[in-house]
Specification:
alpha/beta, five-stranded parallel beta sheet, 458 residues, single chain, extended
Length: 458
């Protein structure tokens, strides 16, 4: 979205000149010759910056400035004045002006002032976004569960949070809540009001990962037109969370080891050492010990990281937490989707607790969200749960009825096929596309067999 600029000046030549110059720079331009007209435009459009003349035919420029700030404090205002009056400039700055410029001025000077102003606004918005994000993460840093495994994890997090710089290695399968544990450690520690910077080591190409972590100096490579701070600098005083560290290449592992040991590093293309104060939390779903034996992960880094190790248990090992978490997800989705689902049918509860959950808590959350969207009843039943859950051992026979008898030696091949077809179609709620894929036959063949055996969904 292009930044938008409003020019407020009763000099039509000035208006036109500034409009032409700034449009060439790619800005969206509005222009008006009076103060009241400016306020009208601001109320109808999203304006990022105002170039406001101090002397207007209807209202004093300072009064217009005050009214702009009353309407929206985030709009930047640059005052333009033909009078080099220090007192007036001070009054404008006190009333909330971003800057002022004396007429006549050089267009390059004004362009530079506008660029700096919009850059400042962009940085302020980014800081606010990060603060909102951190507030949300703080609110989502609570780990729920009553199982002995998760209680132990919570106790361990409580002890680690009391330490200042101890590095932590969080291990566990995908979807077990490793990032949640990192959030809990950070926000319950004395570093909680400082930045928590996160990066997924497997999601960023090796060539970019180094500059993301450590930053770079101007001219370090072709596109390095300005110096950029990396995550470690931005996290100074706080925490860096390195997710999927098992995928990090050895040349970067040595640099991480250096930060762990000395709290120092150099930007890409830099010659001076930078010192930071950070806690490093690393997470992986891989067996780092096996990677060390294979030679793909540094032994010294492994031992330096595993000062404190948290093992996040898979959901299948904390069965008593499944329904508790499921009900929490129902509450979340009720708020988000404006629903009032009260819980689960007994059949649905049985399926949820018997399923092995290879995707762990993340999979459970997605399953509940899907079921909430599909149901318009007070309770989620087995019908709203995915096919893989309904294949739980012992469930088919419980819900299929006596007509789906066990296959015996005396049955003919046709009889066996009829039983199997009936079972698959019933479990899939007669979704023929899914059934044909599972059975490995075309839809036309499936229709022919349904007709052959006289099957019906009634």
């Amino acid at each position: 979205m292009k930044p938008s600029i409003l020019i407020v000046d009763d000099d039509e030549v000035m208006q036109q000149t500034l409009s032409d110059v700034l449009k060439k720079k790619g800005y969206e331009i509005f222009s008006v010759g009076a103060g009241n007209g400016a306020l009208s435009i601001i109320k109808k459009n999203i304006i990022d910056l105002v170039l406001l003349d101090m002397r207007l035919p209807d209202v004093d420029g300072i009064e217009v400035l005050k009214k702009i700030k009353e309407f929206d404090t985030e709009i930047l205002v640059i005052m333009m004045t033909a009078y080099s009056d220090v007192q007036t400039a001070v009054s404008a700055m006190k009333s909330g002006a971003y800057h002022y410029i004396n007429k006549p001025f050089e267009l390059e000077e004004l362009k530079l002032l506008i660029e700096k102003g919009l850059e400042t606004k962009s940085l302020i918005n980014e800081v606010r976004r990060l603060h909102r994000q951190q507030k949300e993460e703080f609110q989502n840093s609570h780990i729920h569960g009553v199982s002995p495994q998760i209680q132990y994890v919570k106790e361990l997090i409580g002890m680690i949070s009391k330490t200042h710089k101890t590095s932590v290695l969080i291990q566990g399968e995908s979807g077990t809540g490793k990032e949640l544990a990192a959030n809990a450690i950070h926000y319950n520690s004395k570093r909680g009001n400082k930045p928590l910077m996160k990066i997924n080591c497997s999601a960023i190409p090796d060539s970019l990962l180094e500059s993301e972590l450590f930053g770079y100096e101007k001219g370090a490579f072709t596109d390095a037109k300005n110096t950029k701070k990396g995550l470690f600098e931005l996290a100074d005083g706080g925490t860096v969370f390195l997710d999927e560290i098992g995928d990090m290449k050895p040349f970067l592992q040595s640099k991480i080891l250096r930060v762990l040991e000395n709290q120092t590093f150099m930007r890409v293309g830099g010659e001076r050492e930078l010192r930071v104060d950070v806690r490093i939390i690393a997470a992986t779903n891989k067996n780092l010990e096996a990677l060390v034996r294979e030679g793909s992960f540094r032994k010294d880094l492994y031992y330096r990281l595993k000062v404190m190790v948290i093992e996040m248990p898979p959901l299948r090992e904390r069965v008593e937490d499944i329904l508790l978490l499921s009900n929490l997800f129902i509450e979340e989705n009720n708020r988000e989707h404006n629903k009032s689902i009260r819980g689960f049918s007994e059949e649905a509860k049985k399926l949820l607790t018997q399923y092995h959950w290879p995707g762990n808590v993340r999979e459970l959350k997605n399953v509940i969200e899907r079921a909430m969207i599909l149901t318009d009843q007070d309770f989620i039943t087995h019908k709203q749960l995915p096919f893989e859950l309904r294949q739980t051992v012992g469930f088919d026979r419980a819900v299929s009825g006596p007509e789906l008898a066990e296959i015996t030696e005396e049955m003919s091949l046709d009889h066996m096929e009829k039983i199997h077809l009936t079972k698959v179609l019933k479990n899939l709620e007669w979704n023929k596309s899914k059934a044909s894929k599972i059975l490995g036959i075309s839809r036309a063949t499936l229709r022919a067999k349904i007709k052959k055996y006289g099957l019906s969904d009634h």
